[in-house]
Amino acid sequence: MTRTSSFPIRHPLSVDPSRVERLVQIIDRDIDALSYDGVALKVSLGDELVIDIQRGYANREAGTPVDATTVFASMSTGKNFLATLFLSYVERGLLNLTAPVAEVLPEFGQRGKGRVTPFHILTNTSGIMAQSPPLPAAEAVSNRAIFDYVCKERLEFQPGERINYSMVAGHAVLAEMLLEVDGRQRGLAQLMHEELFQPAGMTSTALGGRADLAARMAPIVARFKEPGAFHPERINAINMLYKTEGAEIPAAGYLTCSHDLHRFANMLRRGGEIDGFRFLSPAMLEWCTADHTGLTSNGLLAYAAETRNWTLYPNGAGIGFILRGDKPTHGPISTLASPRSFGGWGAGSTCFWVDPQRDITFSLLMAGVMADDRHVEKASSFGDMVLAAMY
Questions:
Q1: 370 near 246, Cβ under 8 Å?
Q2: Contact, 293 vs 163, CB < 8 A?
C-alpha cells in the first residue's frame, strides 16, 4: 500500500513476553483492588496482532469473565466512529468541513451560531454547549431532540476562541448533517451500520441497543466515588442508553467489542483502508491528525489541576481525533508514542490510538468505569508498558 511520508513503517524487532507479563500482573492487581473489573487490550505491529490480553470480569457481580465475545459500551470512543463517517462524506463531496453548519441545517444558525462549522465541532472549538442537554429521559435518547434543543441555545464562547469538549451536543449536530445530506431515507443507526460497521467487518458494533449484543454486554458500573468530569451516579445511569429501543446518541451510544474497535483502529493505521475497502484517503488522515489548535487551552481535565495538582499543558487537537503531540500532556495515549500518534477515548473505560511512525495499533476496553483522570493515567501507563516491551 502506498503511504505518505508522514506515515513511515518501522517495526520493532520483537516483543518481550516477560515485559508483557508485567502488564498482566498490573492489570490483575488493579482488578483485585476494585479499580476496575476487567480488561480487553490488543496491540498490533502492522497487521500482526502481537498482544491480546483478556483479564478479569465483564460482570463482577455475576462472575462473568471478559472474553472474546464481551461487548462494551463505547462511551465517547464512539465519537470517532461518527467522525470517520462524516469525513468520508466530505471526501464524497456531500459535506464541507469549513462551510457553516447552517448551510445544511438552517435552523441551527439562530441565536448567534451562524459561523459554526464542522471543523469547529470536530476540534471542540465550536462553543456548542459542553454539558448534555437537560432533557426528559424519553427525549435524552433521541438525537433529533438533542439537536432541537441545541438549535435554541446560544454558544458558550465564540467559534475558535478555545477548546471546550462537548459531551453530546456537538456530535448530535454532525449526525443531523449526515442524515440531511443522505435524504433522511435512513435512521442514524441504519446509516452507521450500512456505511461503516458492515463494510468494515465490525459485526458486533451497533448504535443503540441490539438484542444479541445486549446479552453479552458488560454493565456500566462506576468504580469511583468522588465526582470529577462525571458524577458516579451519572455513569451508572448511562446503562439506560443501551436498554432503550430506538436510542440513538451518536456521541456515546454505541456497543462494540475488542475485535471491532481494534479493527476500526487498524483501518486508520492502514491509511483509511481495510480488506480492500477504502473509507478515507491517506491525505484526509494526514490532515485530520495534524495539530489544528496549537496553544489553545483545553479545560476538559481542569478539575484534576485542583484535585490531583496536575499541571495542564496545551494539548493540540486534530479534526475528530486526539493527538499525542510533543509535550508532556495528560492523556490516554502513551507518553512514549510518536508525536503524530492519534486516537480517541471515552469516559473512564475506553481508548484506542495509532502510532503511524512505528506502525502500531493499541486498543483498550474496560469493564468497571474509572474516574477520567485515573483512566487516562492508567491507559497511558499501559501504553508505556507496551512500547517498553518492544525492541
A1: no
A2: yes
Cell (9 digits) for 269 = 493505521
pLDDT per residue over 332-354, tens digit each? 999 999 999 999 999 999 999 99
pLDDT score recorded for residue 314? 64
String of DSSP letters for 245-270: TT---TTT-EEEEHHHHHHHHHHHHT
Q: In terms of residues, how long is the chain?
A: 391
How many angstroms separate the CA atoms of 318 and 123, rounded?
6
CB 94 within 8 A of CB 239: no
279 vs 88: CA distance, rounded Å: 6
pLDDT at 229: 73
| Cα–Cα distance, 230 to 358 (Å, whole number) | 34
Nearest to 39 by CA among 75, 5, 4, 67: 67
User: In this prediction, what percent of the chain has a pLDDT beyond 70?
Assistant: 95
Number of alpha helices (DSSP H) and beta strands (DSSP E) in the chain = 13, 12
CA–CA gap between residue 346 and residue 342 (Å, rounded): 14
Alpha helices in 70-127 (DSSP H): 78-91, 118-122
- 272 neighbors 282 (Cβ within 8 angstroms): yes
Residue 118 sits at the vertex; the CA angle it makes with 114 and 123, to the nearest 5 degrees, is 115
Any idea which residue has 470480569 for its cell?
57
Give residue 1's Cα distance to chain centre.
Answer: 26
Determine if residue 194 is left, alpha or beta; phi over 0 gives left, psi from -120 to 50 gives alpha, anything else beta.
alpha
Average pLDDT taken over every residue of the chain: 92
Which whole number is the average pLDDT over 41-59? Answer: 97
Q: What is the pLDDT of residue 238?
A: 79
pLDDT at residue 8 tops 50: no
All cell numbers assigned to 368: 468497571
Residue 86, amino acid: F
- Locus of grid cell 487551552: 297
DSSP three-state, residue 48: strand
Q: How many CA atoms lie within 13 A of 241 on its CB side?
A: 28
pTM for this model (two decimals): 0.94
Q: Which residues contact 234 (CB under 8 A, 6 or more apart)?
A: none
